[in-house]
From TrEMBL:
This is Aromatic ring-hydroxylating dioxygenase subunit alpha. Residues 45-151 form the Rieske domain. It comes from Ancylobacter radicis. The keyword Ribonucleoprotein does not apply. PROSITE patterns: RIESKE.
Amino acid sequence: MLDSTQTPLKSLIHRRKPGYSLEAPFYTSPEIFEADMDVIFGSHWIFVGVEPDVPEPGDAMTLDIGKTAIVIVRDDDNEVRAFHNVCRHRGARLVLDYKTTVGNLVCRYHSWTYGLDGKLLFAEHMGQGFDMGCHSLKPIHCRSLEGLIFVCLSDDPPADFDVMAAKMAPYLAPHDLKNAKVAFEKDIIEPGNWKLTMENNRECYHCAGNHPELTVPLFAYGFGFAPEELDEHERLEAENYANLLTTSHREWESCGFPSTMMEHLDDMVTGFRTERLPLAGDGESHTSDTKAACKKLLGKINDPKHGALHFWTQPNSWHHFMSDHAVVFSVLPLDAERSLLRTKWLVHKDAVEGVDYDIENLTGVWDATNDQDSTLVGYCQEGARSPAYEPGPYSPHTEMLVDKFCNWYIGRMVEHVGR
């Protein structure tokens, strides 16, 4: 797969050293990027949006995963569906706008017209022998997990999505994303390989020195530490946090909010992790003052102090659900050294901007954090290009989840490329 001047992909995969970062070609090689798009993004469940992106019948949203153009629609039966965004006539892109509302899907080239179920309804001048039923839009596997939309480009999607969905639904249900709305969204082009963006997310080793906004609502001891390096005061703080976590989980679960950690990052094809964590300060939300950003709480939640639920999925997403709002993130690779990070902030569908919430306050913490992380990812990408780069060791206390991401990635590549 790689040319003769490079180490073959299979050799790179099999010599990967657990506990260490990946070799440079995994972050820089166009050939490995193409393999990633085929093996990872072409075969697994990919998070792409939320049901409030298409809240009403006729609403449509487009996106690209590599070379695959996708349109997601809500049909007249209120079902969310996904199709290849390609007209079955001569291949023109069917829906051109990122978000739009339609009665039917009409190709602008020759007016071939499709229903929201993908069936071809109108194709003029095609002759008596033309079979409309053979030219429906090509469907893409699409699932909603309590309002989070996933698609799979494979004809044979991983079946363990059902396992994740069954385990995660009770955690997500109280936040009722289906009855939320997208208050704001923002795209960033990160100057790094998609794996570097994901690795950066999977640890907070870097947070104290780089994320002054994010570290306000978060407890430092919630993201790992080396016990042997703590002084007496720090050990007491760590013990207090552990006690707070136990007490909070017990209290939240008694109120119907599943909270305990569940982790399957590298032992399932559809890898995931979740846990509800307490927040510092007033303990209500991911905001600069740690208070709720929206007066109208999500779902039927009546107490803003139910912590923050995080939910990660392999290969491309992470999410934070508070009582007052949710923030969802998806990573879509653009090329070997650039990635699209798409972030959406959601509030209750009846919340009114300027009355119930302020956009700057709602988005401030994660907007700043995303920009900071983008810079850090760029530093890593620049380093991976250097002939001096070699895989470095992960901290066993603070980067163990990065290691699990890489374990998952290598495991999936082995499964497809072969032993």
